[in-house]
Structure formats: C-alpha cells, structure tokens
Amino acid sequence: MKFAELLDLVHKPGATVGSPLAADLALITAVSQDLMAAELPSCDLAGLEADYAAHRPRPVTAVVLTRDEEDGIARCLSALDQDADHCLLIDSESGDATVDRALRARGDVRVLSAPWADDFSHHRNLAFGQITDGWLWHVDADEVLAPAHAGRVRRALSALDCLLPSSDFVVSPTIVDVDGPAYTNTQRILRADGPFRFRGRVHEHPYDDRGNTPARVQIDARLDHFGYLPDVIDKRGKRDLYGRLNRLSRAAEPDSPKWVYYEIRDALDYRTASRQDLMAAFTELAAATPDAVPAGVPDHRSERIVDAWILLCELAVRFGGADQIRTYTALLTRAGLTVEATYYRTVLESSRLLGRLSSLVDTISSAETHEEPANRHLMARLFELQSTLALASGRYEAVLPAYRKAVARNAGDSAATDFEMLRQLLSDLRTGPA
After folding, report:
1. Separation CA 351–CA 326 (nearest Å)
2. Is 142 inside any structural domain?
3. Per residue in 260-282, pLDDT tens?
4. Do 304 and 369 sit in the same domain of this protein?
C-alpha cells in the first residue's frame, strides 16, 4: 500500500476515524507528491494499526532561539507540555530574565549560550550538534501553540515515524500572525539525524546538500505568532534587523533574486512609501526577477521567483501601473496561481470602473446648469442616479446632496430603496446571524 492510498482512506468523505492510527493520520492535511508514492511497511490496514499500537514514538525536542524574550518565553514553553519531551534554548546573550523564566516554565530546559552571529540558520543548526535523536521542532519565542491543538504535533509525528521511518522529509505546522496571514509551508520540524540543514541568514528554511527543498508534510496544528504586531516590530527593530540580514545575504549571493525580493518586502513600508519609492522598488525587483523559473537552479536560489511576481503586482497596484499588473498577472496565471492573478486583475479593473463612475458623478453635476422646466423631470432622475453612482464609487460627500436635489424634483424613490437595503445590510452585519 502506498502512503497516498492510506491517506485517501482516512480523508475520504464520510470516513469514520475509528483507530488511533486513523485519528492521528487525519491530522495530516497535505503531503508533497514525492512522499505520496512511498511504500508502507504493510499492505494490510489491520497490520498497520497493530504496528502502530506497539510503536514507541521518538522524542520531540523544542528548539527555541532567544535574546531578551522574558515577556513571552514562559507562555511559549508552557504551551508545548503535551508535545515536546525536551526543550533546547539557544540563547544569544540575553540581558534580561529570559533564561530564568524559561527554567521556571519547564524543568527540562537545556540552555546553550551562543553569541548572536547575524545568521538565524547558524543558530538553528547548532541544535544538530546537541540533539542527535528524535525530532527537532523549531519554535520561535514569540509563538504559542493553540490550546485546542495541544498534543497534535506529537500524534502526527508519531504516525509519520511509524509509517515512514526511512523517508526524509520536513513537517510544517501552521503559523498564524495575530491580525495577519496564516503560513502553512513553515518547514519547522525535522529529524535530528536527517540530512537537512537550514540555509539563509534570515527567512531560513531547511534544504538538502544541493540546496533543494525537502519533501514536505503539512499538519493541522496551529501556533499563534505575536512577533509581527506593529508595536512589536518597532520596539524590537525588526525592520532594521531583517534589512541588514537581507543586505548581507544579497552581498553573499548577488545572483539570487530571492534576496532582492526579501529586501524590498521587508524594508519598504507601504503605508508611508511615496509613489517614486514604490516605482523604484518595482524597477529594481523586476530587473532582478526572471519571467520564468529557470530549470536546474537549486530551490535555495529560485524559490521566491513566483512570490516576487506577486510582490510586483502589489507594488504596481499601489503606484497605479496598469500595464505592469497585466504583465505579471499573466505570469501568475501561467504558473497556476489563479486566485492571485484574479485578485490583481480585479483590483485593476475595478479601479478603472470606479474611476469611470466617479467621472459620471461629475458629468451629472456639470449638466445642472442646463436645467430648464422642460427637462426638470430628467434632471430629477439624473440626480437620483448621481446619488446611487456616488455611493457605488465611494464619493460619499456627494450622496446626500444629489438625493436631496432629486427629492426636491419629486424623484428619489429608487435611491431611497437602495439606502434602505444598505441600512438593513449594515444592521444584519452588526447583529450577526439570527
């Protein structure tokens, strides 16, 4: 039996999760294609379940990099009680109570002191010299495992160990930025005796010795990340730190477009950037990014090309580059990223349409000077239409004046109906479903 066939049995619609093996396999949400074809130790489901009942899970060690993390370290470590057998704290000369609070939170914490070297991969890879058995689970000090998901990581790793003991792969729990996006391809868990090591001073991921991405498994376990809240970014100087590390990485690998992508993504503040800054960033990134993923180039160098196309669309939206959006949405479509391409095309087209609607609002206003008794009834309908168009195009300051002019000319019923429907919709949104 292949691994894909077993997963199909567990995930098929209407399947009942009756055995511990099935329940733990249900936590696996995605598997890369190269693992799907892996042959299992037995073709008999009952035999697999019996093997799992006798299976002894390998230990899980949480690896946490710290430097002045006293505020959140206890919460981070305490949340791992049901999933991590041990904890390795790799501390970069904290000047606060980080280490003391970590030791109080868990009695099994080992502390490795390592001066900060401007290289997250260097620090993560130190764990391989300390732990040689079981799984290494890299958890950031500003991440907290969701209480409802406690125990899931251990269960998923146990099932994977039992079924795929000789396969090399990495495991990705979901990490959700508080008030931000969710990340599923996190690649945070790997075997201590496996072949993969982290690369990259920042935005580090594990790779094989050729620089290619390992086979991957995603699991239904969520950690909440508090480190990208705006006040945290400002307080800890993360934008400056990531910018410096990106520049160092770019200097070491000048032919890798990923560092141009990261440098612009991390350093440019969209909230305050001028149109000229946005256009300059677009020009720089476009010059560094090919319009196809080159064959034979290691993932370590090429893996962010498609992400760069998305960022180029985002920059073009912000400075109003219609032709640029069309160019890169075409590349996204060719790469199979239908949602992303549709979003940016829709933003482009809706902006054009809203601009046209706004122009019509002004056109109606200019017609008012030509009103006469003979055309007053049409002017009334024009003002009614103007009110609706102003609402649709976001010209809210023009909505009520246009409506009142329509009412003064014995019109406005259609606009009033639209307003009432909008009022009811807003009321429903506030009160929620019945």
Report:
1. 14
2. yes
3. 999 999 888 877 899 999 999 99
4. no
Quick one: 268 and 284 in the same domain? yes
116 and 176 share one domain: yes
Residues 143 and 224 occupy one common structural domain: yes
Q: Are residues 180 and 314 in the same domain?
A: no
Q: Which domain holds residue 406?
A: 363-431
pLDDT of residue 341: 97
pLDDT tens figures, 203-251: 999 999 999 999 999 999 999 999 877 788 888 888 889 889 999 999 9
Predicted model pTM = 0.83
Q: Are residues 67 and 208 in the same domain?
A: yes
Q: Is residue 166 part of a domain?
A: yes
Please check whether residues 213 and 298 belong to one and the same domain: no
Q: Which residues pair with 145 in a beta bridge?
A: 223
